[in-house]
Design brief:
255 residues, mainly alpha
């Protein structure tokens, strides 16, 4: 039964949300910096919600909802890219006025972003460094779970494609061969074909987000080290070259 006394502010817990900004530098632009990152973390929470549900749907061959969820994630990434456009209004001089207030904090410490990477298949145990307690346990559990692409490859196996259980290059070649068959006969494998294109959309959106992040950091601090000892733009530049789903990238050359 609906609560007749429930208001917009109570439903959205706006007293908590809007009191979560606590600038400490005295600089006008610190509010911008805080809000952008808090909003991005909220969007990342939604991305994780959608990716988790999409993985579960693919695992039971329910591709319709999975396609919708992945498409929604791509739209969310577009919003997150726009957030970098807003942050890019911060000049180097304005950022230097608030940087001391950031201490050792860094966006590279974002637990949710690491969870998104893992959910997409970027499983690097190095993310456990300097993590402890419940945070470390959460990341370890995520590393042990099948990624979105793992579930997709398992689906290909259930559809009759073979050689997907191996390891290394042999497994990658078998995955590429499966996708090649799907793309050569889309009318036979239409739902797999649609899923493949949604994954490509996701890869493209994630790459655009990374590029926008790099260019924003480059614009504001150049190639200096970031807060918390991070490598800043140098690290971000290294992340741009590898596709999330390499076989789907390679198959385009083979068609």
């Amino acid at each position: 039964m609906a609560d007749s006394e429930l208001t917009y502010a109570r439903y959205l817990k706006l007293d908590r949300v809007l009191s979560a900004q606590a600038p400490t530098s005295g600089a006008h632009d610190e509010m911008l910096f805080i809000v952008i990152h808090q909003v991005s973390e909220l969007w990342m929470k939604l991305v994780l919600h959608e990716l988790s549900a999409a993985r579960a749907a693919i695992a039971v061959d329910d591709l319709g909802p999975a396609l919708k969820m992945i498409a929604r994630v791509v739209r969310v990434l577009s919003q997150m890219i726009q957030a970098w456009d807003v942050l890019a209004t911060l000049t180097p001089t304005e950022y230097l006025a608030i940087r001391p207030a950031l201490g050792a904090s860094s966006g590279f410490q974002s637990r949710q972003f690491r969870l998104i990477e893992v959910a997409l298949g970027l499983k690097d145990p190095a993310i456990l460094a300097n993590r402890a307690g419940a945070e470390r346990a959460t990341l370890e559990a995520a590393l042990a779970e099948p990624s979105l692409y793992d579930q997709t490859v398992a689906l290909l196996g259930r559809r009759g494609f073979t050689g997907l259980e191996g390891k290394g290059q042999a497994r990658s070649n078998a995955i590429e061969a499966a996708w090649l068959a799907v793309y050569r006969q889309p009318e036979r494998w239409w739902d797999l074909y649609e899923l493949a294109e949604k994954l490509v959309d996701l890869d493209f959106g994630f790459a655009r987000w990374r590029f926008a992040h790099l260019k924003t950091v480059e614009r504001i601090i150049g190639w200096k080290s970031g807060t918390g000892g991070s490598a800043g733009a140098a690290y971000l530049a290294r992340t741009l070259t590898a596709p999330l789903f390499p076989e789907l990238a390679r198959v385009r050359t083979e068609l």
